[in-house]
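Researcher: We're reviewing a set of sequences before deciding which ones to prioritize for further study. For each one, I'd like a predicted 3D structure that I can look through quickly. This is UspA domain-containing protein. If possible, include the structure in token form so it fits the rest of the review sheet.
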Amino acid sequence: MTDTTGPHGPARTEDWRALHRIDGPTDPTAARCHLVVGYDRHPASRSALTYAIDLAGRLGGFLHVAHIIDTDDLPIDPDAADWEQAVTGAVEQERHDACTVLEHAPGPWAYYSRLGRPAQLLAGLADTHNAEMIIIGTSRGGLVSLLQRLLGESVSTTLVHHAHRPVLLVPEPRTQ
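Model: Here's the predicted structure for UspA domain-containing protein, in token form for your review sheet.
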């Protein structure tokens, strides 16, 4: 199921499991290339989005921004009465934050939100649009990132080894 709406999307995303697409305000047919960027609430991901917007503007590219719904979006207690609403709220907040940044994009864009395995969905989106590259933030570091790499679940490692196109890793901003 695809929900295609205006540049700011629906007031609430009711079925957070389904693929949702929000198109930006400009015509995608004018783009000279396509770029795919993964987006979530982490600082490196936000840096990746900012970098991708700038790069797409310089290249005359269409920017495909994808938020893959994962465990970071899920509330801690799955038995809570408002669990579905909490997931919907978290997914909606990601959409709102991304679209707020994308309002300043100089070229065409689309925002996607879907439940699934991030590396596979980003690679699939890039293949679908014959993207020049996939842009993501660097790993978050720490024990969770180490375990993901050891178990073969690291998004960056999986994309670097299995995607059929370049992968650009953008670090989080330095704190001073």
